[in-house]
Amino acid sequence: MSNDLVDVAAALEHGLEHHDSGRPLEALWWWQFSYLAHWGERAAAALRVVQSLLAHVRLDADDETVAEAEFDALHP
Questions:
Q1: Which helix (H) or strand (E) holds 68?
Q2: Is this prediction's pTM over 0.70?
């Protein structure tokens, strides 16, 4: 997962370099191209890992703890 996140960050940073150099259209083009060509799938893969971990942790928790956490999250 860390490699996926590094790839995403590198592609976004490359677009930021274009933007910071005063080329916003080039930045937008790069972000769209790189998202469709590469990092969109990497980001989705990282998200699937996080969702899998969260589902596993939740399944291991007792019902009362889960209910309290949900209540606390919805009523700050």
A1: helix 63-74
A2: no
Q: Work out the angle at residue 9's Cα, subtended by the Cα atoms of residues 7 and 10, and round it to the nearest 5 degrees.
A: 65
Sign (positive/negative) of CA torsion 20, 25, 47, 71? positive
Q: What is the distance of C-alpha 25 from the center of its chain?
A: 24
CA angle at 64 for the pair 60 and 70, rounded to the nearest 5°: 90
Instruction: Work out whether the CA dihedral 22, 37, 46, 4 comes out positive or negative.
Output: negative
Q: Which amino acid, one-letter code, is at 41?
A: E
pLDDT digits (tens, 9 = 90+) for 24-36: 999 999 999 999 9
The single residue listed with the structure tokens 């309290």 is 68
